Amino acid sequence: MIKSQTNVYDSSTIEASTYVYETKELFITFKHATYVYENVEVTDYLTFANDKSQGIALNSVIKGVYNYKKLEETT
């Protein structure tokens, strides 16, 4: 059974993401900081992860729908 999945992207702003299936947490690492989005449905995660543009998918599927917390900032 897959417990989590990590992806690395060729994106101008998003470096990587990790989705934890059990807790429905989506960790997104941007160039400047890492955020965790809470209670993300697996279908929305898969839409985000498999889109040709993670930035566009983030704005249309994740942001404004799910609560998030900023975990750390990169200087």
Task: Describe it.
With 75 residues, the protein is α+β, with helices and mostly antiparallel strands. It contains two helices and five strands. Strands 1-2-3-4-5 form a five-stranded antiparallel β-sheet, covered by helices on one side. The longest helix has 9 residues, at 42-50.
How many DSSP H or I helices?
2
Helix residue percentage: 10-25%
Strand order of the largest sheet: 1-2-3-4-5
Question: Averaging pLDDT over every residue, what do you get?
Answer: 94
Which characteristics define this entry?
alpha+beta
SSE layout:
Layout (H helix, E strand, L loop, with lengths): L3 E5 L5 E7 L4 E6 L2 E5 L4 H9 L3 H9 L5 E6 L2
Short description:
With 75 residues, the chain is α+β, with helices and mostly antiparallel strands. The chain has helices at 42-50, 54-62; strands at residues 4-8, 14-20, 25-30, 33-37, 68-73.
